[in-house]
């Protein structure tokens, strides 16, 4: 260490974080400070995500201490950053940028991402590359002279594309390589004139998903994340975090879908039957086990990046959501067949448990598709968790351009 260099400061403990929260509140009273100004100040104070490095919204503290900060700020009436609206940025883009981004990329993108000033979406799946994501056909060609990339293709099932400012994007940059090795990861400006977003109306009546057409979209090389051709490796960080974000959320006991079903059971005794009671008890136990497993997963995350455990959590979440919502509709009998509103809207965020029982039943059908289909995730658990032999993959070493499509 240079003679005059300051010694690095140790990461704060819980008491140190509480002092920092008090300092933030003293300087920026939530009752009088505009929301965005308060959120920016919180980020700059290192209280956004305390486990991130200093200068990037954190203090290098243990991840488990984030709850100390959140509890103190909630008690003081401080605004949050509307995490459901910016969940893709928080849960998928941010950890990927932190791990693979340049210092300039981290400084540019993480602050407005966390404050919600810039919403993110995910341009991964395609009409011909959903479960087999590595077969994607969207092309990115590097332009001579400028070094920029020109992207053409189509993406689908893109949540929040209609409100997004930025997107995480994977595209094929070398069709001569096998499908997993010719992909590069980019940060795409959704305001580029070549980006067209069209709504996809779902079975719920909403259009929270979109299809996105990319025609001559220009991406500077400074918005490439990771090395050229390493996009599949970078994308694994995104996908692992996505599964944790969907299936590993920490909720209170009887929160989420099981809470809705239990409330109906308690409020409508005339609908009860012995068979439904037995089924509800079984699902309650499974939901509680999943809740405790999510807490355990959160503790594991304090020591590193998410692994295949998040896959198991997401699998369980999808199955439970579908079984519980089905039970609730059955419990309500004829009322369960009603549906309040089929108006076509483009919501700001996903609401898995909102509205009526019919909505929850229909929306839960997508839980086994989004974030990786349950069938694909079962293969991941079999191979990466249980160590079972992998399925035969005859296209593993075949150049992408020679694959049948």
Question: What proportion of the residues form beta strands (DSSP E)?
Answer: 5-15%
Largest sheet: 4 strands, mixed
Radius of gyration: 23 Å
Counting helices, strands and paired strands, the structural category is alpha+beta
Q: Give helix and strand order, one letter per element, not per position.
A: HHHHHEEEEEEEEHHHHHH
Structural key phrases:
40% helix; 4-stranded mixed β-sheet; disordered N terminus; 11 helices; single chain; 4-stranded antiparallel β-sheet
Describe the SSE topology.
Blueprint: H1 14-27, H2 35-44, H3 66-75, H4 87-100, H5 103-115, E1 120-123, E2 139-142, E3 149-155, E4 166-172, E5 183-189, E6 195-200, E7 209-219, E8 224-225, H6 231-247, H7 256-267, H8 274-301, H9 309-331, H10 357-363, H11 374-385
Parallel strand pairs: 1-4
Antiparallel strand pairs: 2-3, 3-7, 4-5, 5-8, 6-7
Helix pairs in contact: 1-3, 2-5, 4-5, 4-6, 6-9, 7-9, 8-9, 9-10, 9-11
């Amino acid at each position: 260490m240079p003679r005059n260099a300051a010694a690095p400061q140790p990461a704060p403990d819980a008491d140190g974080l509480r002092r920092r929260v008090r300092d933030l509140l003293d300087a920026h009273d939530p009752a009088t400070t505009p929301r965005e100004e308060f959120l920016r100040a919180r980020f700059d104070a290192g209280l956004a995500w305390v486990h991130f490095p200093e200068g990037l919204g954190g203090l290098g503290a243990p991840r488990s201490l984030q709850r100390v900060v959140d509890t103190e700020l909630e008690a003081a009436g401080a605004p949050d950053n509307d995490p459901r609206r910016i969940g893709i940025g928080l849960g998928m883009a941010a950890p990927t940028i932190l791990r693979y981004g340049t210092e300039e990329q981290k400084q540019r993108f993480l602050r407005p991402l966390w404050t919600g000033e810039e919403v993110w979406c995910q341009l991964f799946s395609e009409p011909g590359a959903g479960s087999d994501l590595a077969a994607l056909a969207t092309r990115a060609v590097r332009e001579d002279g400028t070094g920029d990339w020109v992207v053409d293709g189509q993406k689908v099932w893109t949540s929040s594309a209609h409100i997004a400012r930025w997107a995480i994007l994977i595209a094929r940059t070398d069709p001569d390589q096998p499908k997993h090795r010719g992909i590069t990861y980019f940060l795409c400006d959704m305001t580029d004139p070549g980006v067209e977003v069209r709504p996809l109306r779902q079975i719920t009546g909403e259009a929270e998903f979109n299809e996105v057409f990319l025609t001559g979209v220009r991406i500077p090389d400074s918005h490439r994340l990771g090395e050229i051709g390493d996009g599949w490796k970078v994308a694994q960080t995104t996908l692992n975090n996505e599964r944790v974000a969907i299936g590993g959320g920490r909720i209170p006991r009887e929160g989420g879908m099981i809470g809705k079903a239990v409330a109906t059971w308690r409020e409508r005794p005339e609908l009860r039957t012995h068979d439904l009671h037995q089924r509800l008890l079984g699902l309650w136990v499974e939901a509680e086990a999943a809740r405790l497993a999510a807490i355990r997963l959160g503790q594991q995350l304090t020591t590193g990046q998410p692994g295949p455990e998040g896959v198991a959590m997401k699998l369980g979440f999808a199955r439970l959501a579908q079984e519980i919502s089905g039970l609730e509709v059955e419990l309500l009998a004829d009322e369960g067949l009603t549906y309040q509103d089929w108006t076509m809207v483009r919501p700001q965020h996903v609401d898995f448990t909102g509205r009526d029982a019919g909505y929850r039943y229909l929306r839960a059908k997508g839980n086994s598709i989004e974030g990786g289909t349950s069938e694909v995730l079962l293969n991941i658990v079999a191979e990466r968790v249980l160590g079972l032999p992998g399925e035969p993959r005859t296209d593993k070493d075949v150049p992408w351009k020679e694959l049948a499509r």
